[in-house]
Amino acid sequence: MIPFDYLKPATLEDLLEGLRSANGEGALLAGGTDLHVKMRLGLKSPRLLFDISELAAARNIVEAEGSLRIGACVTMSELMASPLVARLAPSLAEAARSMSCRQIRNRATLGGNIVTASPAADSVPALLAADARALIVGPGGLRELALAELLLGPGRTALGPGEVLLEVLLPLPEAGHRSLYFKVGRRRAQAISVISLAGGLSLAADGRIGSARIALGAVAPTVMRARQAERFLEGELPSAVNLAAAAALAGEECSPITDVRASGAGRRLLVEAWTHRLLQQLCATSGDDAGGNRP
Amino acid sequence: MAIGSIVGKGVARVDARGKVTGQTKYAGDMRLPNMHHGKLVFSPHPRARVLAIDCSAAVAMAGVKRVITARDLTGSGRYGYDVAHRPVLVAEGEETRYIGDVVAMVVAVSEELASRAAQAVVVRYEVLPPLTSPRQAMAEGAYLVHADAPGNRCCKREFSHGDVVAGFARSEVVVEHTYKTPRQEQAFLETESGVAYQDEAGVVHVLSSLQDPYGVAEDIHLALAIPKSRIHIKGTPVGGGFGGKLNTTIQVHLAAMACLAGVPVMLVLDREESFIFHAKRHPTEIRLKLGAKRDGTILAMEGEVISDAGPYSGRSPEVVGLTMSALLGPYRIANVATRAQGIYTNNLDSGAFRGFGAPQAAIAREGLLDKLARELGLEPLELRRRNFLQPDSRPASPMLGDSPVSLEALAEKIIARMGPKPEPAVGSSKRIGRSICFDMPVFDVGAIPTLGKSGVGATVEVHSDGGVSVYAGGTELGQGITTVLAQFAADQFGLPMEAIRVEMSDNWTCPRAGRTSASRLTFGLGNALLLAIEAVRQTLLTRAATTLGIAREELRFVAGQVQSCSAPERAIAFAELAQLCWDKGDNLREEGWFRAAEDRYMYGHTFMAAGADVAVDLATGEIEVLKLANVLDMGKVLNPVMAYGQIYGGAVQALGYALMENMVTKDGLAKTPSFAEYAIPTAVDIPFEFVAEGIETPYPTGPFGAKGIGEAALNCTTPTLLNAIADAIGVELDAIPVAQEHILAAIHQQKRI
Ligand SMILES: Cc1cc2nc3c(=O)[nH]c(=O)nc-3n(C[C@H](O)[C@H](O)[C@H](O)COP(=O)(O)OP(=O)(O)OC[C@H]3O[C@@H](n4cnc5c(N)ncnc54)[C@H](O)[C@@H]3O)c2cc1C
Questions:
Q1: Domains delineated in chain A
Q2: Tell me, what's the ipTM?
Q3: Mind listing the pLDDT tens digit for each residue in A234-257?
Q4: Quick one: DSSP state of residue B339?
């Protein structure tokens, strides 16, 4: 590991100023649970680390202006403990809970999980299924971007030099909206996702599916939405046949690879099986279980 | 031998306090004056010719003490158990055989500097295509990993009994299948580590985490031409071994660095280095065939094992041999023809791992028994019971033994412990499967056919204050041998546990005790220690008899005294007696030497039964182990807390083997290079109901009737889980690990047929 300097700017202004003068040689350190690993493996060797883990501007969870706004430096443990998140984005709380172990969850931040841009990042399916947006601050001031547009590929984001992810904005769910999150790992804890998925669904008064949102993790270069399955469901009755057909579509539209955790073909089977389970549970009239299921 | 108050009790481990409070010093915690740090330069290519090694940049770095290549070594430069063909360092002009081969070593003032200097060593390679599967390596014209091993055959074992052709001809039902098992990593917490220095008398001292100080001394002698009288190996507390530290690991490298650099050197492998370096459980392909009569009587078995031996021989001949032997299991099979081969490849190395080849065999055998049961329309358990070895029958196996057969008692016990099979909830997509399997894990009792006899020594010394020291050259790997030996001494001398100190794993202070493997220490070392203790007891008794004026036969050791059996008030305190012996010049330090009798048996057997209930969700493939039970015939449970700890631990490793563990290589490279990729079970993967039990059929020659149990629980636990899953989904499974995707694939496959 190459030696580096460490700074902890007190304010957002100090941080932006610091990043400017570092001239691209600085890196943001939030929880460090991804960054340290990469530095140790020699994949990243920043000269200067800016610790943002306690940056006040990125540490809040609030409901404002029709959104649930979550600071990028909020940790997974904090997401799990937040009553606001439990009420407004239960599948995100479940995603946080599914991650790793307590020690990591106490450090790992939402922003770090997003910016790492791993296809297997566990919070991202829950965020994508909620149509989340990213609030970004940088040399050019503030800008807002759909999360789906921030994530470009494995390890690649649309963040420019000196830009910081400040907050994640989740539009408030409509009344009667339900969401769920599932993760399949090789073991019950401390597992990188073989696949993960999140879904949200609202049923119209006539019993038909109003909107359906399905996001799939670890089966494409970025976390993806299963658009074909979603379109298929919208306006349809949540019949057994329809749910099965939509699940099959999700299995077809993803593009998983084979790695040490699973085969590509196996991942497709898992996507179909778990999308089916997800839709069944979202449509179930009784047993209002918003909590996910941890395989 | 009367059993006193301590043997059989779950007394606390003698090393518990130090480990729990963090006071125990592992090799990596040691600090010596002027201690330097070593770093190994590994070959990045599984097979490549080393063209040139340029150390100049590394040597020029301030703080670098020495950079070492093969050229600097004296002696053969080669080591290895079985065949000493592993180069300490691959020389210029030679070929590497796997990515754990070392081409250079660096000694520097700090760990960080050693690391940077290692990166500055420039090696030019001619990269060559590696052999990455036994099939490829066996093919006509394949290049030879070792020039003297035609067909890349590392070893071959064959066994035949009766007339297998006639056996199959008479069979009414024949089943055959091929099973595949992956490479399993020991996943010990403490990586290979140690410190070494050479003293002014030329003695090389190596303090290191290991399983066999005597084997390490042998290797250092072979490779570096250091006289045996000048090699001192001290085993440090081991943070897990499971067979992975049975071969010499880094100790030859350490000794070479210390001698050539002339300073004390510490070497601690990081996790990635550790994973590529040590030998793991052999990946195997096992074709097995069984023939039986309609009533279930098995008439014939034919088996063919092909194991990936990796680049070096090491333990492969023994392990692969045991895979073959263990194919028979605890069943009567009159006609047998089995064969096993270990094949060299450029993959990661294979060697010893708890179970030592037998777990692979159990997967094939118990899997095929279930298939046979289905063909016969018999309950799997009933089929097994009809073929159990009988108390008077000897196994038709190369693993002859003299342990009383207790399979029926184990069957009764496991049935009782499993209870009624649970039912899934109505309307649930879950199905519940059950399996019960059996095995006869072996332990070394001193006379293994391929190894010859192994004598085991132990020393005991009673000090003048009545305290006791035990010197026993086996190694404490966490299995609890230190505590067991202390229990023996405390019991025999009638002393509290605190009075006993046990010194282990040191080729200088302890009599030769051999390797710590094959679940052999409680039996071998325990027996040796009892012999030593008995000799000292006789001296003490003689002195006490004279002093008290009581016949020796009338005396006993109890409660810190030697006292009269009939009149306990007539006694002498143990400490007082020890002082008296000291004053009178009696020898209170004796060595016991235990060897198996010449013409007896070869193995002891720890008969076992395993049972599992597993729920599988047919819709998602989700697997949930509801219950996992292991029952072992331990002969005598010497310390229930530790004994059951061994069973639980072994069962968890078996569960990992069944459900998630696979050390994947591609083109000879590690695809699961760290714990981020290589998954082992965590606490929440432990079965909901987890049972470990023992029955006790005294083993006549075991200390207090005890057997070796360290490895046993791994044996047939994996197939029990596998068969239970297969039972739940109604589809045969023939490869591990089994994950959700495999369940879904198996169900889909079947739908299509
Ligand atoms: C043992 C272990 C287990 C893990 N298990 C899981 C798991 O189960 N699921 C999972 O999804 N992940 C897992 N991870 C990965 C990791 O913990 C998560 O991705 C985590 O959320 C990263 O957050 P962090 O705060 O630690 O990021 P850091 O490591 O601090 O940063 C990661 C990257 O994002 C950049 N960054 C951080 N914050 C910002 C910001 N606000 N704006 C711009 N850039 C930023 C950093 O510069 C860096 O490049 C695991 C990691 C470890 C070590």
A1: 5-51 (3.30.43), 56-171 (3.30.465.10), 178-288 (3.30.390.50)
A2: 0.94
A3: 999 999 999 999 999 999 999 999
A4: E
Residue B637, amino acid: V
Contact by Cβ (8 Å): B321, B339: no
B425-430 long-range contacts (CB < 8 A, ≥24 apart) are B429/B617, B429/B618, B429/B619, B429/B620, B430/B615, B430/B616, B430/B617, B430/B618, B430/B624
pLDDT digits (tens, 9 = 90+) for B72-83: 999 999 999 989
End-to-end CA distance of chain A: 37
Q: CB–CB of A2/A45 below 8 Å?
A: yes
Catalytic site residues of B?
711
- Chain-centroid distance of CA B17 in Å reads 25
Degrees, nearest 5: CA angle B656-B630-B338: 75
With an 8 Å Cβ cutoff, the interface of chain A facing chain B consists of 37, 184, 186-192, 194, 260-263, 265-267, 269-270, 273-274, 276-277, 295
Classify A106 as helix, strand or coil.
Answer: helix
Distances (CA, A) of B680 to A218, B42, B141, B394, B751: 21, 26, 39, 38, 32
pTM over 0.80: yes
pLDDT given for residue A287 in this prediction: 39
Q: What CA dihedral angle connects B144, B146, B150 and B155, to 10 degrees?
A: -130
The closest CB to that of B682, out of A190, A261, A276, belongs to A190
Which atom of ligand 1 lies at the shortest distance from residue A30's CA?
30
The C-alpha angle with vertex A35 and arms to A18 and A14, in degrees rounded to 5, equals 15
β-bridge partners, B97: none
Yes or no, beta carbons of A188 and B685 under 8 Å apart: yes
Q: Which among B622, B659, B745 has the least Cβ separation from residue A269?
A: B745
Structure tokens at B145: 């990993």
DSSP letters for B672-716: S-STTTS----GGGS-SEEEEEEE----TTSGGG----TTGGGTT
Q: What are phi and psi of B177, to 5 degrees?
A: -160, 160
Instruction: Confirm if B501 and B230 have CB atoms less than 8 A apart.
Output: no
Beta bridge partners of B356: none
- What's phi and psi for B86, nearest 5 deg? -90, 120
Strands B623-633 and B689-695: parallel
Q: Name A247's Cβ contacts closer than 8 Å, sequence gap at least 6.
A: A229, A272, A273, A275, A276, A279
Q: Please check the confidence at residue A290 and state whether its pLDDT lies above 50.
A: no
Q: Given the structure tokens 């079965």, which residue do they identify?
A: B687
CA B622 to ligand 1 center in whole angstroms = 28
Domains of chain B, each with CATH number or no CATH: 16-23+446-594 (3.30.365.10), 31-130+186-277 (3.90.1170.50), 284-445+601-752 (3.30.365.10)
> Distance between CA atoms of B594 and A169, rounded to whole angstroms?
74
- The span from the CA of A289 to the CA of B11, in Å, is 47
Q: Could you report the per-residue pLDDT of B207-223, keeping only the tens digit for each?
A: 999 999 999 999 999 99
CA distances for A175 relative to A203, A238, A282, angstroms: 10, 18, 14
Q: How far is it, in rounded angstroms, from Cα B289 to Cα A229?
A: 47
Which residues, in sequence order, are CB contacts of B166 under 8 Å at separation 6+?
B335
Q: Is the distance from the beta carbon of residue A222 to the nearest atom of ligand 1 less than 6 Å?
A: no
Q: How many Cα atoms are found within 13 Å in the side-chain-facing hemisphere of B45?
A: 15
Vertex B599: Cα angle to B597 and B604 (nearest 5): 70
User: In three state form, how does the secondary structure of B551-562 look?
Assistant: CHHHEEEECCEE
Residue type, B687: P
